[in-house]
Write a structure and sequence with these properties.
The protein has about 100 residues and is an alpha+beta fold. The chain is built from 3 helices and 4 strands.
Amino acid sequence: MYVVCVTVHVKDGHADNFLNATLDNARNTRKESGNVRFDVLQAVENPNQFFLYEVYREEADFRKHQQTEHYLRWKQTVKDWMAQPRQGIKYHSIFPESTEW
């Protein structure tokens, strides 16, 4: 599995808008055949901080996701709400094994 973890900090007053746009993107991403999981988390102590946990069957599926209409719409919609550039780290899942997803 190919895992993408993204940390996002949004400007004050934009958390709700960001969350709505991100949930739309996440719901549409879950419909993609190569997507296994898309979690949206909001920090308890800082409601302007979010963590996106995305799992794809392989890297090519993530690359396809980056070309979808819903992702491009999300990226354009949220760009001015960012307090700083989002930070993404890519991983290969070790455990659980892919057959257990």
